[in-house]
């Protein structure tokens, strides 16, 4: 499965979020603009990309960075979110 092929506009992700468009993409993954279906709130959907042959330690580091990023984003006050 190629993420870019699945997360097209209108796609319902995890039965919770509607994909509204792609915001950016890099070697580590892609970020999409979305809408939480239960509340109508705008959200960012980040999909991590793992490479075949990547060492388990590398994946764990990437997941740890992602979790730190999630906590930081969750701590932002509404006036700092777009």
List the helices and strands and how they pair.
Layout: H1 3-6, E1 12-13, E2 17-26, E3 29-36, E4 42-48, H2 56-75
Antiparallel strand pairs: 1-2, 2-3, 3-4
Strand line-up across the major sheet: 1-2-3-4
Q: State the share of residues found in helices, binned by percent.
A: 25-40%
| CATH 4th-level superfamily of the largest domain | Phosphorylase Kinase, domain 1
| CATH fold naming of the largest domain | Phosphorylase Kinase, domain 1
Flag low-confidence runs: none
Biggest beta-sheet profile: 4 strands, antiparallel
What string gives the helices and strands in order? HEEEEH
**How many β strands by DSSP?**
4
Residue share in β-strands: 25-35%
How many domains, in number, for the residues?
2
Shape: globular
Count of alpha/pi helices: 2
Describe the protein's architecture and organization:
With 82 residues, this protein is α+β, with helices and mostly antiparallel strands. The chain folds into 2 domains: 1-49, Phosphorylase Kinase, domain 1 (2-Layer Sandwich), CATH 3.30.200; 52-82, no CATH class. 29% of the residues lie in helices and 33% in strands. The protein is built from 2 helices and 4 strands; from the N terminus they run αββββα. It has helices at residues 3-6, 56-75; strands spanning 12-13, 17-26, 29-36, 42-48. A 4-stranded antiparallel β-sheet has the order 1-2-3-4. β3 (29-36) and β4 form a beta hairpin. The longest helix has 20 residues, at 56-75. The mean pLDDT is 83.
